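Entry
Fold in token form

___
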Amino acid sequence: MGAGAGRHPCTHPRHPRRLPRPPRRRRHDRRDRRHPPVLTPSPRPQEAPVDKYGWTLTVVAVSAFMITMDNTVVVNAVPTISADLGMSSDDAAWVTTGFILAFSCLMLAGGRMTDVYGCRATFAAGMVVYTAASALCGLAWNAPVLIAGRLLQGAGAAIALPASQVMVTIARTDRQRSRGLIVWSAASTAALALGGPIGGAIVEYAPWGWIFLINVLPGVLAVILSLVLVEDTGPRTRRPLDLPGVLASAVLVFALFHALESGPAAAPLTLAAVALTALVLIERRTRDPMLDLRLLRNGVFVGGLLAQTLNGMGFAALLYYSASFMQIYLGFSPTKAALVMLPAAGVVLILTPVASWLATTIGPRLTVGGGMALMALGVSLFSGLTRAHDFADLMPGVLTVGAGAALCMPLLMYVLKSVPEQTAGVASGVINMFREMSAAFGIAIVGLLIHHIPAPGAGTATMEAFRDTASSGYLLTAALLLLGAVAAALTLPPRTSRARVTRPDVRSSSA
């Protein structure tokens, strides 16, 4: 046996024992030796971050209530305002239509500003204009000042409203979108239901100027909260505003409204045709168009826009002609007639969360389409009313319409989800513009059947003729709503898979 016999291989002279390697020094060890670490106390636990989305919902609720209420709060106060300022009938009409006209004409401009400058800055700017105009209206000393204030109110509302909708839909989770939809819909519905009673109470117990001055303090708070606590969601395109496109769209909407108000005259229709042609040419040739015509290739957007338009036409016609029918034919007082639609508003407030859940569960196609079909059913129930019916007999139709309207609330959210984020502001402006115009179109189309509204106390034959034309008008309204249900059922997306739920980007994850 040799000299190395019996030794472990690792102890053989040729195989010295291998000691474990020392750990490799990090690059900054030498620097650490020169500058030993300074011991600092452990940081205190941070407080929970502020729920910025909760503040966003607060701002959206306040602004939606104020802007929507201004469509209805002035109606009952116009006689008092006209008598106090010595206004003519034309000037009195401008107090109501001036707001709607400016609101509709500048809606696309407000949407474009949202895409270019961001929703927070655009919303704050719109609310500043709206709040200042409210103060001007409340302190108005003659008709021109009041009309100018109403036009400025509509302009501010047109700038702020698309931004408020983008705040709660873009770069949000589906759960946040649903919460935003519920808050926005509840505020708008409450404003529609309470606008008339609030205006009547102020005129009866206080100077009429307070109809506008009550907007000042909430408007100031909304501006401050939006600048301090609201997150600026959605990308900014950093593009020009496209002033030629803004001007052409405003002229187009103005001409269409003028044609509806004055009848199908040649001058406004010609102006509308010229403005439409100019708008299409401008948007096709400009490098950064305000209205991306490729949106018209989006089936969900076009179908949702058509459904929204038909829904607005039917609902506006129902509200407009039902007030005259209930007071003249059924003999209701103005207060009693105004209270008929309050249960529908309550149903909308209660069922809007259910509608959001249904749209997530079975899809917006069945939810919105079924809601418009329910509205058509409820409106058709009004066609069988006679003088023997009273308040309680109207409730089946009223509650059915309210339930259907609640199911239609998710429509806006899913239409905005279908468009690119950089065009969401303009898409919101288009939807709101068509919603405002659809009301005028619905009243005009149904008015082709209800062409004569008799005076209270007219003869029996005249009243029965009015009932027959009103019944035909209700059935036409139901047909418009059914067409909207078909449009929604054919174009809106089916049930959305859970895996496809969109998430906000990192910048808005804290919301």
